[in-house]
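Study this one:
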Amino acid sequence: MIKAILLVLNPVRTWDNIVLENRNYLSVALAFLLPLLAITCAAEGYALVHWGKAHGPVKAIKKFSTAEAISYEAFQCVLSVALVFFGAKLLKRICETFHGRQSFQQAFRTVAYGLSPLFLMRLLDMLTHMSPWIPWCIGIALSIAVLYHGVPRVMQPDPPQAFGLYITTVIMLALASGAVRFITACALAGKLKDVHTLFLDAAKRLGF
């Protein structure tokens, strides 16, 4: 979480440190991505249970049960991890169209750290009347700014191709993360009942 904040405040130095660390994708996922998602999901889940969320056409405040909050946050966490892996895989493919030989490890680091401001802004979802699209807009704008320094440093494309790779990357990630935000907003509004029931049953079996 601290590194996500540092990427916003001092992106150049933080990206340089990330390159020097040269962690593999499993280390990044376990030591950075999953803890960040766990913190933001736990914070939002706490707010859903204790403060509730404006719900329905009249925006009445609904307080979620612990099982409902856990099922929703688990669903959101799964989609977020899938977004990073999908984004990394697609970024590697994009590099290949630019005749690059970048590895999946490089692509995963770029996407996982690059999207961390987006995940961090989910803390705003704790606010009862906060629209789900406001944190996404702020988060994706910060991620786009952060990736401007991250894509050339981590992916190391040929200089003439660097800006084109950056533009393609941010468009791809904006569209993919927007789709995830739409799906999770529908789930929170109760429009994905089959998926909600699946995760809710799992939460109840765990004793929540």
Residues 13-205 form one domain. The two ends are 27 Å apart (CA to CA). The chain has a mean pLDDT of 88. The chain is about 75% helix and 5% strand.
